[in-house]
């Protein structure tokens, strides 16, 4: 494991410090004195890292999911730049229909978590009559999902809310790729690109939830009526790999190098288990252990100061 991987793993685990090659290092982020340019962004007059740790904590909360979705990382980086780090300007987590951030007529207590990315004026799919603010990613959790006495009953699930938000950020990342001259979805007619994109975003959710790079054949077709076949799974896997590569390339162009790492070691298999699987003996014949999903830690901001 490299130093960057060890640092990223410790940060993701919420540890204050970690050991590497016999030495201990902090997981704190380096603070840089604000410049006049940083102070001139719309909103409060002090960059977020000198105002509050709220946005840093928010990033830590969403990192277990967003780290496996490069287009969402790309959009998040774009939001950080546009807001000077005050990401709450362009990211809205709405809890209940009466939340003041809930645009009138956009979300109601339908009983399920919903989300939406509103394209900006210079982005594809922009419409003047879109509900919500252009360039904002919304995730909505209805009241009845938080109220155990309502019907239908459902417990509040922060992971579900974050998954929804990350999906909407990834939609925003797709718009960035298009505007930067990439072609993230190929081999599909323009009229069919949005349904395919929705399916791709679902697959991102499944992959991060299950911590595997494999495409779940059983979930294909959830929104697009695409047949759940091995061939279609391969098509989606190739598309996701292409989008990942383009997103990481664009992040590098923007000075945000991403360090790949995994959150868990590959599953170990005994000789007997491997033999049984290889021979395919009845109910004991299973699949090969799934590889861990490659995730990405944002580089360029880490401090290497020793504790």
Number of helices, where a helix is a run of at least 4 consecutive DSSP H or I residues: 9
In total, the number of strands is 7
Q: Level of helix content?
A: 25-40%
Quick check: average pLDDT?
76
Strand percent estimate: 5-15%
Rg from Cα:
21 Å
Give the helix/strand class: alpha+beta
Strand order of the largest sheet: 3-5-4
What's the number of domains?
1
Q: Ranges with pLDDT <50 over ≥5 residues? A: 31-53, 300-307
Instruction: Give the biggest beta sheet.
Output: 3 strands, mixed
What is the assembly state of the chains in this entry? single chain
Q: What sort of overall outline do the alpha carbons produce when their principal axes are compared?
A: globular
Helix/strand order, N-terminal first? HEEHHHHEEEHHHEHE
Give the CA-CA distance, first to last residue: 20 Å
What would you say about this model in short?
By secondary structure, the chain is α+β, with helices and mostly antiparallel strands. 38% of the residues lie in helices and 10% in strands.
Report on this model:
The chain is an alpha+beta fold. Helices cover 38% and strands 10% of the residues. The protein contains nine helices and seven strands, in the order αββααααβββαααβαβ. The chain has helices at residues 3-12, 36-39, 48-51, 54-66, 70-83, 158-179, 193-210, 230-253, 271-279; strands at residues 17-20, 23-26, 91-95, 114-117, 137-141, 258-261, 295-298. The strands form three sheets. It has a three-stranded mixed sheet with strand order 3-5-4, covered by helices on one side. A two-stranded antiparallel ribbon has the order 1-2. Helix 5 packs across helix 6 (158-179). It is globular, with a radius of gyration of 21 Å.
